[in-house]
Amino acid sequence: MNASPDSTNSAATALPGSSLEVSGFRVRLTGFQLRLISVIVFFTAWQIAGLIPISPAFPTFTATMASMFEMTFDGTMIAAYIETLKPLALGVGISATFGVAIGVSMGLYKGSRWLFEPIFVVLQASPVAALIPLITYAYGIGLTAKTIAVIILASPIIVLNTYKAVGNASPVLIQMCCSFQGTRLQQIWKVIIPNAAPVIFAGLRLGVAAGFIGVILAELLITPTGIGDIISYNRSIANYPHMYAAVLSIIVFSAVMVGLLEKAEVRYFRPEKKRGN
Amino acid sequence: MNQAVHLPLLDEATPADPTSNIVAVRGITKYYGTDVHALENINLDFPTGQMTTLLGPSGCGKTTLLKIVAGLLEATSGEVFVKGKPVTGPGPERAFVFQDFALLPWATVTRNVAFGLELTGAPKKEREDIARSFIDKVGLAGFEEKYPHELSGGMRQRVGLARALAVDADVLLMDEPFSAVDEQNRRKFQEDLLRLLSVENKTVLFVTHSIEEAVYVSDQIVLLSPRPGRIHSIIRPELDRSESPDDIRRDKIYLDTVEEIWGNIRKYLE
Ligand SMILES: Nc1ncnc2c1ncn2[C@@H]1O[C@H](COP(=O)(O)OP(=O)(O)OP(=O)(O)O)[C@@H](O)[C@H]1O
Ligand SMILES: [Mg+2]
Fold first, then answer.
1. Which of A135, A192, B112, B179 has the fewest Cβ atoms within 10 angstroms?
2. What's the average pLDDT block by block, 10 residues per block, for chain A (277 residues)?
């Protein structure tokens, strides 16, 4: 095979934004193309690993994709996502709303810090999977228990990030706001919270990712439903392509959600980042 | 020929005179905690429409004094009067220009300049029109929609100045406004500032480390001693401001005043 202007293979080693020579063609790669290439490389490696195979329980990429299509079109996947998304959306929504509110109040008021800091520090430090049986004991096996599992995983990081960000708000900007006779409320809304937004959003992204862990853990440990059910059922009947398809789909879904959150952040809170610096 | 004039030092008993002195500082002493004695019994008048510079060694309490006048810091004892009224906090007749700019990184130049007006609840259209006119006056036309990180240090300082001018305060408090600016731009900025102030009719309290800058821009220079800051002397360089900037800098009074201040500062450096 001789080298062609098609850059997919040789370009994989190119550095971001660099241009490279392929058979005399100068190719400039955009960030999107580079990302595409790294995805292709990953799936190729997966395919090869599955063909060897590195383990009898490791399917090829193509077999996994076939399962993915099969489950998508027979409705299994959609039904599963509806099931999984209920506790996830509820839990993440509650964690984000209350987590940011609690974190902001902790950053602003000593009393709130005194009340909440120990709770969330302990929650963050504890092995949460071990708490899930306790949740089942207290709340049964329904939606409530799963939602609580999501909240337990997602909220500490959201609360603690928000608290740190608000507590470390720039004293210079606060003083500036005072010097122009800003009220305490204006100071909070127009200076402290926008100033803290990048770190709050970093916490939200981590919180959403943790929420996914929470919901899958709940579906594996409490009652098998949704995506967790597809994973555990297909593992028990050794249908590995189906199992991997479910795992892959939830990873992709989680990554897309986190990416969308980042887009929303830049769009609504960080206009200065919109122009590629 | 005029000579630099030395004024008699005020004492606490001298009444504040709101007609010719818009700001009066009476017996200000400041301790940080119990150990750090920053200022000791400062008595000062700031004549309306004039530029007063605070000059003194690092750590002598210049920023502290400026922030007490701004109402951002509380004095341990003593009082500040603005237009005859005692200061209890920040007020609309005073605007602060911060040494490190204090711009909102997430806001455009226009919103930053309009921020003081935004806080008073001025309608968006009105405050943005005012902001644009001041952006123009400080020489930043064309940068209205830029963000602070897209500007140079000197341009950011101009944004800070425009923001202070936009609220139309009578007194501008400027803390080392040119420290982030290189020497050429600094001179240009000094001239721009003088030109701007001659039209805007503001009273300015200006902190600097540069003797040349102080003599060049000031009507009145307050020389502070090392910590705890006390007034060492007050000097009024009677320069002929109608001369060109280069002529002023070659003027004998200018050079003598710089030399004299140097002499004083050298004394307490030993
Ligand atoms: N918040 C504070 N707590 C304790 N000490 C302080 C505080 N702020 C200032 N000081 C001390 O008070 C003294 C005066 O500080 P100030 O910032 O007013 O000096 P300055 O004349 O502005 O100095 P510079 O020229 O370096 O800006 C310094 O010795 C400083 O260390
Ligand atoms: Mg200072």
1. B179
2. 41 46 63 88 91 87 92 91 93 95 95 94 84 83 90 94 94 95 94 93 93 90 88 91 93 91 86 66
Cis peptide bond N-terminal to A53, omega within 30? yes
Look up the domain containing B59 and give its range: 5-93+220-269
Q: Is any Cβ of chain A less than 8 angstroms from the Cβ of B95?
A: yes
Domain contains B158? no
Pairing of strands B171-175, B203-208: parallel
Using CB atoms, pick whichever of A172, A186, A271 lies closest to residue B100: A172
> What residues contact A93, with CB distance under 8 A and at least 6 apart?
none
Q: Does any CB of chain B come closer than 8 Å to the CB of residue A270?
A: yes
Domains of chain A: 64-275 (1.10.3720.10)
As a whole number of angstroms, the distance between CA B71 and CA B58 comes to: 22
| A182 vs B: CB within 8 A | yes
The reported pLDDT for the residue numbered B16 is: 56
How far is the C-alpha of A111 from the C-alpha of A115, rounded, in Å?
6
Q: Which of A175, A180, A197 sits opposite B167 (nearest CB)?
A: A180
B192 assigned to some structural domain? no
Chain A residues touching residue B148 (CB < 8 angstroms): 272
> B238 near B5, Cβ under 8 Å?
yes
B229 DSSP 8-state letter: B
Q: Report the run of H or E that residue B163 belongs to, with start and end.
A: helix B153-166
Residues of chain B contacting A270 with CB distance shorter than 8 Å: 106
Of A32-46, B15-29, B228-242, which one has max mean pLDDT? A32-46
Residue B42 lies in a domain: yes
pLDDT in tens, A67-109: 999 999 998 899 999 999 999 999 999 999 999 999 999 999 9
CA closest to A270 among chain B residues:
B106
Of residues B128 and B259, more confidently modeled: B128
Q: Going by CA atoms, what residue is nearest to atom 24 of ligand 1?
A: B58
pLDDT band at B255; cut points 50, 70, 90: confident
Q: What is the ipTM of this complex?
A: 0.87
- Do the Cβ atoms of B149 and B105 come closer than 8 Å? yes
Ligand 2 centroid distance, CA of B59 (Å): 7
Residue B107 in domain = no
How remote is the C-alpha of B191 from its chain's centroid? 15
Q: What is the pTM of this model?
A: 0.82
Residue B229 — pLDDT band, cuts 50, 70, 90? confident
Residue of the CA atom closest to atom 17 of ligand 1: B63
Domain count, chain B: 1
